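Reader question, answered in our methods column.
A reader sent in the components of a multi-part assembly and asked whether the whole thing could be modeled at once rather than chain by chain. We filled in our standard form and ran it. Here is what they sent:
COMPLEX SIZE: two components
ENTRIES:
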Amino acid sequence: MENKDKQEVLIDIQNLELIYGTKKNSVLALDNIDLQIKRGEFLCVLGPSGCGKSTLLKIIAGFIKPTNGNCLMQGKFITGPDWHRGVVFQSPTLYPWMSIKDNVEFGPKMRGIPEKEIENIREHFMEQVNLKGFEDKFTFELSGGMKQRVALARVLANYPQVILMDEPLGALDALTRFNMQRLIREIWKENNSTILLITHDVDEALSLGTRIVVMSKRPGKILKEFNVDFTNIIFDNGSKHVLYSENYFQVKNEILDLINSQIEE
Amino acid sequence: MDTKNNKKDIKFKINKKEPDKSNENISEDKKKRDKTENRLTVATWVVILGVWYIVTKLELFSTTLVPSPYKVWTTFLGILKDGYNGVPLFIHLGTSFERLFIALGFAIVTAIPMGLLSGYSRKVKAIIDSIVEFYRPLPPLAYYTLLILWFGIDNTSKVILLYLAAFAPIYIACVSAVNKINVDYILSAKSLGANQKKIFFKIVLPACLPEIFTGIRTAVGVAYTTLVSAEMVAATSGIGWMVLDASNFLKSNVIVVGILIMGFTGILIDFGLRYLEKRIVFWKGHL
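And here is the structure of the entire assembly that came back:
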């Protein structure tokens, strides 16, 4: 059953190309991208800065339309943003005029879910991100890590098919980042979510992803894919720490070599 | 399982303690700064009053030109008691404020939607913006005469003059507020399932509120300065008219009283607006 689930393709990107700007000053940002996201996957996209990995996420989210090629979700063209694809931004876009509670409830409220159900959803996810008791606070009363946890709960509250994360931990300090990685892994496991995570941190990708895609420098192409399983091993170990094994460093070095070859050229 | 919980506890402590502490320090520093600033403000006014007193005491100028503080005070009490020109002071203030607040009300109700729309749509902006940019720098007195010809000599033309003065700052604030909205706010709202209408009322409008408030405060200031011009023609009451009438008869003590009353009421109105701002856009600065 689980195996069958994992086979289902949620997002299907075919031959994608994106050109920024007009004819004279056009920049080829993404070139010939073919990528599939399957249900239950934790896909990490790595690449040098400016390679267009965020642009790729924006296309999947529906914020940008591709110049050429197709981007489908469950067989249908993605025409704009919708709640089946939740987005966690690099800097949390929480609304400061709403309490934490209202921020988390925003998605279900917009979709007209019954009040009682919204309350249950909110309680569940506030607990999942360890923020019980903070319902009536305002966003500016929280630390960076807490804000990102609220942003995560806000996206989860919609039960999206795919969660897109654009370097969500990039602005956090190392200790908070480590705890957040563990939290994201636990949530992914517990909810059977499908996650696409953009990151520039190789260790983050290795300790979270089930599949890692490495992109080239501009124009962004997919250089190589790695299937890894460290996240499951870490989870089974009690999520306490990253498991550094021979194999881990082998993959890490290969990825680093790949990325460095892009920067040096 | 135990270690897991422990870790969570540690995380909470780290997250909670630091910002609290720094906040305390900041607010203490701020209190100190506020104190010295308040002292400086008070000192400035004590000096101004002192110079005024000395100048009049030494009779450097004729009292018709520079009335003494004492004379101004007694004039104020007189006006408070008997009114000016047979009309009580509260009626003067009342008619002025009626004109001012009707104009402001209309300006707020019309300028906010028009400004937000202009910020939203370049086409709407192309229509409204040029008109606003054209009349905004005009001295109000220049077109006031036309307004009187068109709308009659009584209250309507005065209110319209004040309305035009108040409209521009609010409108301009709204346009710039919309253009400054964090795009990610709107994108994330769309990704969470909000439709256009909900995005406007739940995201765009609140995100613009801080700047709208600044615009309203500027508008009150501009409208208030226009008030005297509006009451120059065919008025028989109003605080601006009182000052103009007094100047015709060289009653400089009444002029000073009028100016002081206008100054204080202006500060009071702004104080009220700032209070409202604090309550409504309590999150200002955290956008």
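What stands out: Residues 1-21 of chain B have pLDDT under 50 and may be disordered. Residues 1-60 of chain B form one domain.
Send us your own complexes using the same form.
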